[in-house]
Design a protein that fits this description.
This protein folds into two domains: 150 residues, Aspartate Aminotransferase, domain 1, CATH 3.90.1150; 238 residues, 3-Layer(aba) Sandwich (Aspartate Aminotransferase, domain 2). A seven-stranded mixed sheet has the order 1-9-8-5-4-2-3, sandwiched between helices. Strands 7-6-11 form a three-stranded antiparallel sheet. Helices cover 38% and strands 13% of the residues. Helix 10 packs across helix 13. The protein is an alpha/beta fold. The two termini are 23 Å apart. Bound molecules: pyridoxal-5'-phosphate (PLP). The site of pyridoxal-5'-phosphate (PLP) has 14 residues, from helix 3 and helix 4.
């Protein structure tokens, strides 16, 4: 058995090999950016913005879509367009980026943190049903990392209980459920184009929706309350009669430079999603053969799976080791910095989700109590974050098939040396970092 790299052994990954990095620069994008910088149109309903909006909406198979400033704002605008507000309850998965819940607080709603499925880390629909009350108005489903919950059942449940369905698609540009694009399944969807995302403009966001009325509302909400003027006309829409759709709001627009980067990225998106999806399936096949390693569940209804992160689980009972110690050993084998890590902190234990630190959340005592994250029990989220879960950014899946063999070989080596991993002392990680780079 060869010695672990973290303890001074030879790493699985040869020093001469590099990993693909993200985001990637493309010369055509640079030319477009230079052209825009010389034009007199840098923002506000510009040609690049609407060309992108129509093309991305079509790709995901939705009816209407428009850009906004980021994926946090996208969720906030989705909630407001649906008429959700103070004291309304919104079901949110307990393990997601904090923005999903924080956007609910921003409109004075109450995020109801709900546990997740152990094998997809997406919303557990039984837990969700148990959390529905008279006050529940909407569910935000997060298509997390590279998995989905049962969207057919979720839609049925929302219909049965009269709930709006919002899709947080920040992680899954290019995912399809039974051939239907995510983002076109619920009432409204929200997207992020932040730097790490698989379609990116550094920062940026997007909403898709099913009805004309919602589109007009979303337009108005992202543009200081101005009504849609059909200038230029998009999605074949006319100027709505009257200004009844103009709403109180702020500026959540994006720039032409961002839109140009997104148009460039959209041309490459489907090919990149297919590359990641193919590598993920291959890697999952290899991981499934390693004792104590549990690949994530891929539902058979998924026709194309986008990946923000690739994830897998270790069986804590079989391996009796923490995910963080496992990641330290794995990162050393693959000479990839801190690429493998634990998934998101559960929101009731998350340092970046602190609803009780904002005075404007103090609507009254009941509201203050209702938004306290500590009142929620999320054992499956805790297990994923503290014991079983391991994730790595999607750029790992953009390497070649042969590189996936390295990943699997490194996982196998760590498993083979699990006794040594169990005994790793804090601080060993620092030492190996010097070795690995
Ligand atoms: C699941 C999820 N939702 C929402 C967001 C928020 O997007 P943004 O960073 O563009 O505001 C993110 C960002 O990482 C996310 O991962």
């Amino acid at each position: 058995m060869s010695k672990l790299a973290i303890l001074g052994g030879r790493p699985v990954r040869a020093k001469s090999k590099s990993w693909v990095s993200w985001p990637m620069a493309h010369p055509d994008d640079a030319k477009t950016l230079a052209r825009i910088s010389k034009s007199e149109r840098w923002s506000y309903d510009g040609p690049y913005e609407w060309r992108f909006a129509e093309a991305f909406t079509k790709y995901q198979g939705a009816k209407y879509g428009l850009c906004c400033s980021n994926g946090t704002v996208g969720i906030q605008l989705a909630l407001e367009a649906l008429g959700i507000g103070a004291y309304d309850e919104v079901i949110v998965p307990g393990m997601t980026w904090q923005a999903t819940a924080a956007a609910c607080l921003d409109i004075n709603a109450i995020p109801i943190l709900t546990d997740i499925e152990p094998d997809t880390w997406c919303l557990d629909l039984d837990a969700m049903e148990a959390n529905i009350t008279r006050r529940t108005k909407a569910v935000i489903v997060v298509h997390l990392y590279g998995c989905m919950t049962d969207l057919t059942r979720l839609k049925r449940m929302c219909k049965k209980h009269g709930l709006f369905l919002i899709e947080d698609c920040a992680h899954q540009h290019g995912s399809f459920w039974k051939g239907q694009g995510v983002g076109s399944i619920g009432d409204v969807s929200s997207w992020s184009f932040q730097e790490t995302k698989t379609l990116s403009s550094g920062e940026g966001g997007f909403n898709m929706c099913r009805t004309r009325d919602l589109f007009y509302k979303l337009y108005s909400l992202r543009n200081c309350g101005r009504p849609y003027e059909a200038d230029p006309p998009v999605f074949g829409l006319k100027k709505p009669a009257g200004i009844g759709t103009a709403l109180q709001s702020g500026n959540f627009r994006i720039t032409e430079m961002q839109a140009a980067l997104l148009l460039g990225g959209l041309k490459r998106l489907d090919g990149e999603v297919k590359l990641r999806d193919g590598n993920a399936r291959y890697l999952n096949g290899l991981l499934a053969e390693i004792p104590g390693i549990l690949p994530m569940r891929r539902r058979r209804e998924i026709t194309q799976q986008g990946y923000f992160n690739f994830a897998f689980r270790i069986d804590p009972k079989e391996l009796n080791v923490t995910n963080t110690a496992f990641c330290d050993a794995l990162n050393a084998e693959l000479r990839c910095g801190d690429a493998f890590e634990a998934p998101y902190d559960p929101l009731h234990q998350c340092d970046l989700y602190k609803p009780l630190t904002k005075k404007r959340h103090k609507l009254d005592r009941d509201y203050w109590k209702a938004i306290n994250p500590k009142r929620f029990k999320l054992p499956v989220c805790e297990e994923a974050n503290q014991r079983a879960g391991i994730v790595v950014h999607h750029q790992m899946l953009m390497n070649r098939r042969a590189d996936m063999n390295d990943v699997a070989a490194a996982v196998r080596k760590v498993v083979d040396n699990i006794d040594a991993v169990r005994k790793l002392k804090p601080g060993t990680r620092k030492k190996y970092q010097a070795l690995a780079h």
